[in-house]
C-alpha cells in the first residue's frame, strides 16, 4: 500500500529541515558517504561538448573554507581540477618561504589562490599571479606543471625556432634537477589575498624550513583585489556619497550627544556571519579597561544554528613604540590563574614541547594561562592534521604523544615556560605581586622591532611628517 500524501510531504519537509541545519562548509570526513557535491552541466574546453562539473564546499583543517571543482568530459576524456578560496580576502597579504631540502619537503601539500605569485630564485623561475588558476597540489606538483607547460608545442618550436627551443630544453633540465633534489632550493609563495598555505609535515611541532610573513598591501594591490576606499574616489564621487549618506537612517551624532563614558557602559551589537557554518548571527562588542594596561575592545559571538561560541579582543590603542616579550614559568596552580591578554599580533611558544603557535592561530583573546593552554590543546584535538590520511598511524601516534605531554603541562606534572612575543606591544600578562612589578616567574622584555616585523605591521611605509604631500 502506498504511503499517505500528507506523510510523504511531511517526510520531505523534515529532510529539507535536516539539510538546512547542516553547515554550508563541512569538514572532509571519510565516514561521510553522502558528500554534498553539486553537479553542473558545462561545456568542455577541448571538444566543446557537454561535460559535468562537480562542486564541493568544504574546510581544510588549520586553513579555511574552499570550493573544490572537478570537471570531466565523457566524450574526449578531458579532466580538470581547480580550487578556489571561499573565505573573505584577508586583512594582509602573505609571503611563505620554504627551503626544500628533502623528499618530504617535495611532498608538502600546497594551497595557492589565483593571486599567488610563485618564485624559485635558484633557477630564476617566476609564475606571476593570475596566470594560473588556484589549486591544491604539492611542491613537486608545481614543478611538474611548469615542465608540462614548457613542453607544450615544443616539437613545433624546435622546427620554427630552434634556438628558443634549445634554451627551453636547458631550462627544463634545471627543473628536473630540482625534482631529483640534486641541490636544495627555495620556493616562495606571495599571495596578496592572504589565502595560500603550505603544509607543515611535523605539525604540531614548529616548521623550521618554512617561514611565513604577513604584509600590508599597496593601493595598487587592493585595487587588483577589487578593494577601494573613499580616498580612491574622485572628489565629486565623495561629495555625492556624502549626500546619499544624509538620506540614510544612520546619521552622524551631534558633538557631545554620545560621551566617552557612555561608550564604556554600552554593549553594542552588529550582524555578522558565523566563522564555522557561515550562518547569520550577532556579535556583542564592549569597550573595557584592563587595570595596569590599557583599554581593549572585547567581542563575543554566539551562533544559534551550530552553537559556535567565539570571543575576540582588539586593542583600543595604537601600536606601541617597542615590541614586548613575556616569559611565564608554569609550575604551580597559581601560575595557571594569571590573566593574559593575547592580541592578534602575538605569537606563542613552549620551548620544552617544541611547540609554536603563530599570531593568527588563536586570534586575540582575554583569558588565563590555563585558558591559553586549553585553547591550544582543543584546536589540536578537534582538527585532524593538515591533509594527513586518517589511516596514517605514524602521524596519529605523534599527535597523541604530543597531547599526552600537553596534558602533563596542564596537570602541572611537567614544568614549562610559556613565551608570548608581540611585536606590536599590545599583549599583557598579569603579575602576582601587588605593586605590579614582575614576579620571579615572569620575565618582561621590551625590544626594538626588526625591519621585517615593521613591514608586517605596515609601519615601514607610514609617513608621519609632510604626509599630505605625495
Automatic annotation (TrEMBL):
<dbReference type="GO" id="GO:0005634">
    <property type="term" value="C:nucleus"/>
</dbReference>
<protein>
    <recommendedName>
        <fullName>Zinc finger protein ZPR1</fullName>
    </recommendedName>
</protein>
<dbReference type="InterPro" id="IPR040141">
    <property type="entry name" value="ZPR1"/>
</dbReference>
<keyword id="KW-0677">Repeat</keyword>
<dbReference type="GO" id="GO:0048731">
    <property type="term" value="P:system development"/>
</dbReference>
<keyword id="KW-0863">Zinc-finger</keyword>
<keyword id="KW-0862">Zinc</keyword>
<dbReference type="GO" id="GO:0008270">
    <property type="term" value="F:zinc ion binding"/>
</dbReference>
<dbReference type="Pfam" id="PF03367">
    <property type="entry name" value="Zn_ribbon_ZPR1"/>
</dbReference>
<dbReference type="Pfam" id="PF22794">
    <property type="entry name" value="jr-ZPR1"/>
</dbReference>
<dbReference type="InterPro" id="IPR042452">
    <property type="entry name" value="ZPR1_Znf1/2"/>
</dbReference>
<dbReference type="InterPro" id="IPR004457">
    <property type="entry name" value="Znf_ZPR1"/>
</dbReference>
<dbReference type="InterPro" id="IPR056180">
    <property type="entry name" value="ZPR1_jr_dom"/>
</dbReference>
<dbReference type="InterPro" id="IPR042451">
    <property type="entry name" value="ZPR1_A/B_dom"/>
</dbReference>
<feature type="domain" description="Zinc finger ZPR1-type">
    <location>
        <begin position="42"/>
        <end position="200"/>
    </location>
</feature>
<keyword id="KW-0479">Metal-binding</keyword>
<comment type="similarity">
    <text>Belongs to the ZPR1 family.</text>
</comment>
<feature type="domain" description="Zinc finger ZPR1-type">
    <location>
        <begin position="272"/>
        <end position="431"/>
    </location>
</feature>
Amino acid at each position: 500500500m502506498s504511503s499517505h500524501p500528507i506523510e510523504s510531504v511531511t517526510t520531505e519537509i523534515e529532510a529539507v529541515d535536516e539539510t538546512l541545519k547542516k553547515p554550508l562548509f563541512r569538514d572532509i570526513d571519510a565516514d561521510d558517504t553522502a558528500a554534498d557535491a553539486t553537479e553542473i552541466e558545462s561545456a568542455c574546453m577541448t571538444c566543446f561538448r557537454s561535460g559535468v562539473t562537480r562542486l564541493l564546499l568544504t574546510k581544510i583543517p588549520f586553513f579555511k573554507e574552499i570550493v573544490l571543482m572537478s570537471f570531466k568530459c565523457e566524450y574526449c576524456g578531458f579532466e580538470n581540477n581547480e580550487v578556489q578560496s571561499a573565505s573573505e580576502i584577508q586583512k594582509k597579504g602573505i609571503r611563505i618561504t620554504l627551503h626544500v631540502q628533502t623528499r618530504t619537503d617535495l611532498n608538502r601539500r600546497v594551497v595557492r589562490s589565483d593571486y599567488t605569485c610563485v618564485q624559485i630564485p635558484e633557477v630564476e623561475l617566476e609564475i606571476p599571479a593570475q596566470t594560473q588558476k588556484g589549486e591544491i597540489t604539492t611542491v613537486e606538483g608545481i614543478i611538474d606543471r611548469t615542465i608540462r607547460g614548457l613542453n607544450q608545442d615544443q616539437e613545433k618550436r624546435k622546427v620554427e625556432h630552434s634556438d628558443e627551443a634549445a634554451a627551453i630544453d636547458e631550462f627544463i633540465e634545471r627543473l628536473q634537477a630540482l625534482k631529483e633534489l640534486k641541490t636544495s632550493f627555495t620556493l616562495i609563495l606571495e599571495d596578496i589575498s592572504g589565502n595560500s598555505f603550505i603544509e607543515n609535515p611535523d605539525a604540531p611541532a614548529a616548521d623550521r624550513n618554512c617561514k611565513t610573513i604577513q604584509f600590508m598591501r599597496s593601493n595598487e594591490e587592493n585595487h587588483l583585489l577589487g578593494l577601494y576606499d573613499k580616498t580612491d574616489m574622485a572628489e565629486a564621487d565623495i561629495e555625492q556619497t556624502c549626500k546619499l549618506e544624509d538620506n540614510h537612517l544612520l546619521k552622524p551624532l551631534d558633538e557631545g550627544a554620545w560621551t566617552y563614558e557612555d561608550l564604556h557602559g554600552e554593549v553594542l551589537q552588529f550582524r555578522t556571519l558565523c566563522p564555522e557554518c557561515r550562518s547569520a548571527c550577532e556579535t556583542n562588542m564592549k569597550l573595557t579597561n584592563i587595570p595596569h594596561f590599557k583599554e581593549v575592545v572585547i567581542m563575543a559571538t554566539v551562533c544559534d544554528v551550530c552553537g559556535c561560541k567565539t570571543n575576540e579582543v582588539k586593542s583600543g590603542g595604537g601600536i606601541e613604540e617597542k615590541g614586548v616579550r613575556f616569559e611565564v614559568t608554569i609550575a604551580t596552580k597559581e601560575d595557571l590563574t594569571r590573566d593574559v591578554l593575547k592580541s592578534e599580533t602575538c605569537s606563542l611558544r613552549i620551548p620544552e614541547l617544541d611547540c609554536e603557535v603563530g599570531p593568527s592561530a588563536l586570534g586575540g583573546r582575554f583569558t588565563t594561562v590555563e585558558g591559553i593552554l586549553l585553547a591550544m590543546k582543543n584546536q589540536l584535538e578537534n582538527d585532524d592534521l593538515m591533509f594527513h590520511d586518517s589511516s596514517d598511524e605514524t602521524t596519529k601516534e605523534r599527535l597523541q604523544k604530543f597531547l599526552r605531554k600537553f596534558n602533563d603541562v596542564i596537570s602541572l606534572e611537567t614544568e614549562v615556560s610559556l613565551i608570548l612575543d608581540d611585536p606590536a606591544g599590545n599583549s599583557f600578562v598579569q603579575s602576582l605581586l601587588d605593586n605590579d612589578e614582575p614576579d620571579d616567574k615572569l620575565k618582561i622584555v621590551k625590544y626594538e622591532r626588526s625591519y621585517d616585523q615593521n613591514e608586517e605591521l605596515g609601519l615601514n611605509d607610514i609617513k608621519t611628517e609632510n604626509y599630505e604631500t605625495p
